[in-house]
Amino acid sequence: MAKIVKLSEKDKEKSEKLNEALKEVQKVIVGQEGMITGLLTGLLARGHVLLRVSRARENIGGKGTGKNHTAKFSRMQFTPDLLPADLTGTRIYNARTGSFTISMGPIFANIVLADEINRAPAKVQSRSLEAMQEKQVTIGEKTFQLEEPFIVLATMNPIETEGTYPLPEAQVDRFLLKWS
Looking at the DSSP assignment, which residues form a beta bridge with residue 103? Predict the structure, then answer.
């Protein structure tokens, strides 16, 4: 028989605060309780979250359901013409000084919304793998640690949609939660 454990006062306070946060988010994003709970779980566990559009469940992940409104942090629109440097940043040559400076890309944020992640080509996908797994980004010969917490919230269109690429299994495995 399972043992019933009584919550401590500290645990009750944390639970109440979490419920308050959930209610506040639900004021803005209506009818997405499962998705919101999943996102909060991912945030608390500091894991990446993938929101997949499913034709069988359009009411959860379809257009106009609040996926983009949920994460207003650093947002990247993934497109077929996106370059790896557009995500991570690049080295820029200064002719006056004869030296290079680093321009950091939008991946250098605590929470990144990767919108339509499966529209980006393989080179961009592979560049994001290092950030998601290693929590670091290499630009040129220099490696930069990403600040904690670093979480990717990604949306993904159905594979049958024109202009999408299948995500590599290695990248799919980097998501703690996959919501369809």
Answer: 90
Question: What is the rounded distance in angstroms from the CA atom of residue 139 to the CA atom of residue 158?
Answer: 31
What angle (nearest 5°) sits at the alpha carbon of residue 76, between those of residues 178 and 150?
60
- The burial class, CB within 10 Å (0-12 / 13-18 / 19+), for 100 is middle
Average model confidence (pLDDT) across the chain: 81
The whole-angstrom separation of Cα 128 and Cα 123 is 9
Sign (positive or negative) of CA dihedral 161, 164, 168, 174: negative
Q: Give the model's confidence band at 56: pLDDT under 50 very low, under 70 low, under 90 confident, else very high.
A: very low
Instruction: Please tell me the pTM assigned to this model.
Output: 0.73
What topology does CATH give the domain 18-179?
Rossmann fold (3.40.50)
Domains in the chain: boundaries: 18-179
Distance CA 178, CA 84 (A): 24
